[in-house]
Amino acid sequence: MSKTAVVVLSLLLAMAGIGAPIWFAIAQSERQGFEAVSRQALAYARDNLLRSDETGAQIAAGVDRLARDHAAAPCSPTSIDAMREIDVGSSYIQAVGYLRGDMLVCSSFAGQSSQFALGPADYRTANAASFRRDVRFPFAPQRSFIVIERNGFAAVIHKDLPIDTAKSEPDVSLAVFSRQSTTPLSVRGHIEPAWLGRLGKAREAAFVDGEHLVAVVRSEHYLTAAIAAVPLRYLRERTNDVARRLVPAGLAAGALATLAILYLAREQMALPAAVRTALRRRELFLLYQPVVELHSGRWVGVEALLRWRRPTGEIVSPELFIPIAEQHGMIVRITQRVLELLCKEAAGLLAAHPGFHIAINVSPADFHDPGFLDGLHAALRGMGAAPGNLILEVTERGLMDPDVARTTTGVLRRNGYALAIDDFGTGYSSLAYLESLELDYLKIDRSFIEAIGTGAPTSQVVQHIIAIARDLDLNMIAEGIESEAQAAFLRARGVQYGQGWLFGKPMPLAEVAAHLRRQAEVQAMAANDA
């Protein structure tokens, strides 16, 4: 080989050694940029669809209840009271009313005193629901509302409610469509109805069209779909941002560039892997927040709160890692770890204080786990406790599968376990559905407790929730109590138990045991004095 050939080959190899990593870095930048922005757009669309689905569920529950119980006298005082109850108990519905033709003849906000002409329906669905997409009332002419009616009863929602997300990104276009109409129910920005057709038979899709990266998601429950369109400059900016990190590494060395790309890929999957590692290394631990009897101030139980301390000392919020565990099939292992920690830490405590209870949070996945009940029994044996010492807390969202919820709650109750519905008022369970479940406690969400005495509209909701608990014959536990004024308000209305920083922050179980010893000593002294 001649010297010239050697030089040329060397130059080609050098160019390949530099160019290949750069090409690879650019290709990875484009791919990662597209994936990242697609995830962002899909997250916007999913969030909008979730709001739409939850709104639909609340509307269906409310309208079905009115049609079932009040069809004979839809505008009677009793019917209007029911409308107002549905209105107050719903997080998405602004008003409920009754239509005669195109006239709203009575409603939760005006009773029978005012009637409103709504105009003809824009379209009707196969299940006889009619939609009016742009209704304006005389008392709020600047606001547009959607009115959804079936069997004469109608729900009113703000037109922008389903797309009331991504406010920090005003150039992101959002829409919610009925798949029976090409005109959106709610829309912000520029949306092409033809984008719905790109979904095909898939549940969701992300694609580039013109100057937008578009995400479309179909509802599994209703004939609706949500669209989010992100300006293409987001993709360019994200791709350039990734390229600025990868290309210099490619210029330095192909091997280092490859390692950097693999490292970035691993970083994208870091949190699920870290949760698995935390389980393996036993980095999860429990703190316990006292539950007190409001009329006496006596500690009657605790809620076990899961925490994660990383090797760096950083405490990771459960609001971050619990959803990750649920999404990646680790939540059952999380619950098993909680039971293991209880066996280790609470052994002897419940035997010494048989009237005391510990509450733990369980997930829908636990209800599907065939070993869940055996795990609970094993934990009780390890603690030397009885089933009544353990309260299982599940959110309204965790009870969305009616058949599983009824079967599991029934089995657990028959085995002596107490059940609590957590964060009540933030979901959309109907009263009829809750009545069909075997529950013991209703936990009032802290968001409603915070509103007590503030004059905010939600400050009245807590009284409605208390009435519901009484109707269902459930004991009540109010979360997030931070002031004596809140405690007095709840105590005066018959709420039995409270939890919050007013009584104690989350603490190690040893501090709980020390308090129980002091509490027992005080009770003994009082008994002797008597």
Cα separation of the termini: 111 Å
By oligomeric state, this entry counts as single chain
Count of helices? 16
What is the typical, i.e. mean, pLDDT? 82
Give the strand order of the largest sheet, numbering strands 1, 2, ... along the chain. 13-14-16-17-18-19-20-21
Overall SS class: alpha+beta
Overall 3D form: globular
Q: Over the alpha carbons, how many angstroms does the gyration radius reach? A: 29 Å
| Biggest sheet overview | 8 strands, mixed, barrel
State the total count of DSSP E strands: 21
Share of residues in helices: 40-55%
Notes on the protein architecture:
The protein is α+β, with helices and mostly antiparallel strands and 530 residues long. The protein has 16 helices and 21 strands. The chain has an eight-stranded mixed barrel, surrounded by six helices. A hairpin with a 5-residue loop joins strand 13 and strand 14. It is globular and about 75 Å long. 37% of the residues are buried. The model is unreliable at 1-17 and 257-265 (pLDDT under 50).
Topology of this protein?
Layout: H1 3-69, H2 77-89, E1 95-100, E2 103-107, E3 116-117, E4 123-124, E5 130-137, E6 140-150, E7 153-158, E8 173-178, E9 186-188, E10 204-209, E11 212-218, E12 224-231, H3 232-252, H4 254-268, H5 270-281, E13 284-293, E14 299-309, E15 315-316, H6 318-327, H7 331-346, H8 349-352, E16 357-361, H9 364-368, H10 372-383, E17 390-395, H11 402-414, E18 418-424, H12 431-435, E19 441-444, H13 446-450, H14 461-471, E20 475-478, H15 484-492, E21 497-499, H16 509-529
Parallel strand pairs: 14-16, 16-17, 17-18, 18-19, 19-20, 20-21
Antiparallel strand pairs: 1-2, 1-7, 2-3, 4-5, 5-6, 6-7, 8-9, 8-12, 10-11, 11-12, 13-14, 13-21, 14-15
Helix pairs in contact: 1-3, 1-4, 3-4, 7-10
